[in-house]
Amino acid sequence: MSPRPLEAVLRFAYVNGYTCNEWAEPTRQCLGEKDDRKMTNELCELLLSRFFAQTRVSEPLLERYIAYAITGNEDHAQFDADDCLIPPTTFLTCIVKYIETTAIQNPRQWSHILKCLPTVLSVVDADQIVSDLLNEKQNEWPRILCDIFTMLSRLVAVGLFRDHYAKDNGKDASSTMMAIDNDFATQSQTLNNTQPGESSLPFNFTMSQPSAFDPDATIDLAGFAEEPISTEAIGSMDGHSAHDSTQSTTTDRERIESSNAVKAAQIIVDLIEKKSAKRIFEMMNNQRQQQCQDGTEKHEARHSEEPWATCQAILAVPSSQASSADMSQNTHIQKLLLMINRLTDRDLDRRMAVHIKYQELEDEGTARALPSAGLMGYLYHMVQIRPGLSDECIIDCLSKLQTIKGAFDEAFYLEIWFAALTGLREASTGLYKAKGLAEKDGQQQQDETDFSKLDMITATNFLLWRTIVLVKIPYIIKKLQDHKGGDDTKTYMKRQDSSVEGLELNSLESSLAELYSFAGLLNGCSSPMASFEFFTTNTPTKLMDKINFSGTNTAEDDEDDFMKLINDMGSSLDLNTVAVAKAIKGVGNEEVFATIVRVCHDYGFVRDHVADALLKNITSIKQEDNDQGFDIDMVDLDGSDTKQHHKSGDVEVLTKNVEDRMIAIKENISRTAISELLHIGLVSMIHTRRIIDFIIELLVEKAEARDIFSLARICDALNKSSSIIDVIGQLYHPVAILGPLEDLCNNWKPADSEMELDGRSGFDSPSDEDTDGVQVLYGKYGKIWTLVIFVLNKFNLYANVGSVFKETNGFCYQFFTEGPIIYGFDVTDQSMEEFIRQWQTALLGNDGVSDDLLRYSTPQQLLQAAPTLLHRTVLVYENGQLEANALLGIISYFQEKFLSFTLFPGIISVLGGDVLARNPSIAIMCLHQLLMSGNPPDMLLQICGTSILGALISLSEQRTQERMVAGIPPNDMNKNEMEGQLNVLQQYIKTNLGIEEKNEQRQHHTETISTGVTCDNLSQKAQDMFRYIVKSGRSMFMRDVDADIVALWDASKAPKQVITHYLDMVMFQTALEMGGPHWFVDMIVNEVLEAGKSGGAVRAAELGSCLITTPLTRSLDTGGTCTDLLRCLLQDVVPSSLKKHAATNASFFQGQTLGVFTGDCLVLMYDRGDPAEREFVQEFGRQFFETLVVDSESAPQIIHVKHDTEVDNHGTIGVLPSWSDMVIESPIWRGFLKGLMSNPLINESWPNTFI
Length: 1251
Prior knowledge:
GO terms for molecular function: transcription coregulator activity. This protein is mainly alpha-helical and about 1250 residues long. The chain is about 60% helix and about 0% strand. Strands 1-2 form a two-stranded antiparallel ribbon. A two-stranded antiparallel ribbon has the order 3-4. β1 and β2 form a beta hairpin. It is globular.
């Protein structure tokens, strides 16, 4: 029997002392004969079996062969894919099989394997693995990494619990070593008597008879080599020559095992921190859980796939032995054990989202968590409340807040970053939560639609937080620096404790350098934007096809794509190359800190060499090798890639592509081109503001030119990508979109653009093929009008139309202030009556609406007349003069592309009123036709779905009560039929809007984006939220707060993916609107006083003043404006609270907390808003301070010059409080005055208030 080729080559090369290259050449020929995985597996098994056959001897040449085979270099310095003989996946799959039998017997061999292992694992690409998992592609790396963690944990355990594992092999460590030494002496003597023809090598040269090889024997290479082999050729890998195993002692063996344990621990830590192993396993579990059908399977899947629990069990201290004292004190071992314990703590992620960093305060010895509660309030308001604050208001508030806090620029900018990253961390936590599928086949498609809607909401929330961190905050910091008027960007200081040591940094750069050290938080915010489908339009584009299918080519394809990109760089014909698609994915998946640095560098306040220094070692973490212990803050669980500095090329490619797209769009506007550009803006935050500015400028340009065709294409692209509307509304006021369109919506008529019909190039969309003539123009106007309605509805601008439309006599202003009007037959405007009669005749006739009628009508007239047309058509049907099919035909006619824009809000509002007020059966029939039959407009449910649902639910409740009062039996056929129609419509709307309703709360609906909040518990939840934000993450004495954080939102019971934030400004907004200003202010003051007694005073004052002075409602009629809340605070709640708590002998510190809170409210409201509001606040504050002048030694001396000033537009100031002797003599009063005086801006805003 002839030996196998690979074994024969290895035996011959080993005996003759061939170098690695000399051995590799014939080995490649053998592999080339059968270039499959079977041959590489055979080679790997051959090398490892011979390698681990030696238990006491170091084999330098065999070590070199193994290193060359798995890394491509005999010194294993770097990985060379071209020269290596065994793929990394094959080697890692084979090596894990040897751990159980060789971990104790072969420490020297494992020492060499551990030296090569980091080089082999360097090929792990976390981004590619995650992308494959998201795209449901096969990838064996998660399984291999799971086995590697188990293998390495076993090696660490051997070093920690040496005696325990030796006993498991049948003897303790000392007896094992003695037996091995005794056996070795005998075997060595036998080897010396071996005949020349016999073999003592680890290869069976005489294949015809069984091998007599002794694994503990030494090797006499000189007996087989033709000439002596130099010691250099067989030198060991670590520089030590091979030595006889008789020189080995127990101490040497223990030293090697300890060294192996430390090396294995380092490799595990590197896999977690630098190779994003945690993120890989989380993504794998999420993908697996999507296929599970019940909670038990989800639980089992999670614990069966992640290796953390297995590693923890392996590293647990055995009951029979304690760990080695020397090993347990090793820094790397400590870090590993801490990581494993934290990774097995399932509730840690939610707790760590807010408990970020602690900073000691000077006063009262309290502790405050970064970020501050006030900054969190402002930044969360920017994301959650619409429309958002203006940039001027944000800059003013932040500037005052920094002065109040007395913070240096570097510390204050760092707190801003922390506040924004906290929200992003919370948003990214829920982005990839598992989604279940229904068990019943009949419900599967419905549930999938439901989940997709909910996923879109969650993804949009994540997108808005990314925009805040990567677009808005750098812009705000730049504006804040400009607002100060200083030249701080040219004031530098050296830092000695960062990755940019030795560089002189300004405050902006220094804040980034400090932020860089919080690797755990940053990596937790670096969720990949691999779910590109969340932000795509309804119509597929070539760019999306390239993005979805890029990454499947080989390395040669990548090079070809790059060469094509270089060749086509000057061409604008193909802007969607594969290289561009890969650049988009690369930029979208970049770590959040790298993107922050690039954006700040683009703004110009981070210099080139500082940006390079920050990006160079973006994932490096300082190792604490001193004797001061282990720094827990340096632990990085989520990890990140070490190749971020290579992604600058992606940014350059994408920047050039964006510029080319803008040029192409200016030359020829198309909806597809605009949609692709908008999609790039959603993924690449470096280009977001540039792209949005370009779209707004293009919108203004085409609106001024009254180019309705180009405007329709732009508006249609914006309608199809609702996420970009959210981003635009976050960066600018919605007026930026609506303002340019106001004049065209007011005054455009078909005659203005009819001449352009013949010159237009093709159809903008397939739906245009169904229209011709003037109908096309009405369809174009309809797309523009749809965008106007969509923006008004999304940002809730109906409450203050005057801030949006400037022409008070224009159509838009009149239409939205008056609302849908139904004209009677006695209408005074005869032209409108004639218009209605002509359209009614056309609709009731058989020929439909003619081009002549459309030509001599205007869309504005049609929008005004549409409610009346529907109302009169229903009257004709009620009188029996129109068949039901004819009525439904007229309703369907309004679904046509050129008339669909009249449905919202006019026709839908009339039908909603009819559901409750007139004839619900007809209204429901019409709604069923509009929503569930024919071809309903894409935006109909998105704009009007909630209002229709509200009317239907109200009707259901009304009919239920009528049945109960009238005693109508439940089995009444007419009633049940009506309820069936109602239920069908309600379920259809809920399914398409992603609205979930619990069985026990049929009449209650979620009012905010937080889970478990209904109208029954809204006030209590709002109060609990305030308290938890104040106290969470404060100090070691407040850990009892943590126990109820999860129960507060009850997220574990939520059956679907939800948005959960620790601070929900929408909840406070809803609580203000439902509870009223007095209850809202009183709740805040009570919590502030409670914090002054039990802890959290600074945070309570910051959060309370933010809620009072930040606009939560835009309506001027609800009494919830900031000036109304300030008036309620100073005239009512503060005086009554001081009187109440003075009677109970409240503490000085409670009064001081209330004074700080009151002073912050006054200062933050000062010199803000329109002139009337500024005058009111200034006069109101002055008169309030005058009331504090009392004849008491404990009171400060206050200017009390009287003025009889009344402020216009706000009425009189009103009656200000007076203070009784009981209040003035109480400790809480003295504390209240001290708290007011502590604000440094009081005397600046109201000069000479405190002397």
